[in-house]
Amino acid sequence: MNISRLISLFFQGNLVKRIAIGLLFGIIVAQISSMLQPALGFNLAEKVGVLGQIFVRSLRAVAPLLIFVLVMAAIANKKSAPKLA
């Protein structure tokens, strides 16, 4: 099984399974990072941690826009709903 097949299987899978695999991979990298530091010459956890920082920053950038859209949709639905009483 080649690497492209593994990647395609990963992205076709369930979101919950992908999150669990990512968490497991992160825990494994954190555990073996200190052992690999002398061989690699750098801390692997710090290098991979940059991906987490990018993810959190992108969530912070998108969150206000998402909240704005949700509030506008709620206001639009409130105005267009027929009155029952």
TrEMBL record:
<protein>
    <submittedName>
        <fullName>Na(+)/serine-threonine symporter</fullName>
    </submittedName>
</protein>
<dbReference type="GO" id="GO:0015293">
    <property type="term" value="F:symporter activity"/>
</dbReference>
<feature type="transmembrane region" description="Helical">
    <location>
        <begin position="21"/>
        <end position="42"/>
    </location>
</feature>
<dbReference type="InterPro" id="IPR036458">
    <property type="entry name" value="Na:dicarbo_symporter_sf"/>
</dbReference>
<keyword id="KW-1133">Transmembrane helix</keyword>
<feature type="transmembrane region" description="Helical">
    <location>
        <begin position="54"/>
        <end position="76"/>
    </location>
</feature>
<keyword id="KW-0812">Transmembrane</keyword>
<dbReference type="GO" id="GO:0016020">
    <property type="term" value="C:membrane"/>
</dbReference>
<keyword id="KW-0472">Membrane</keyword>
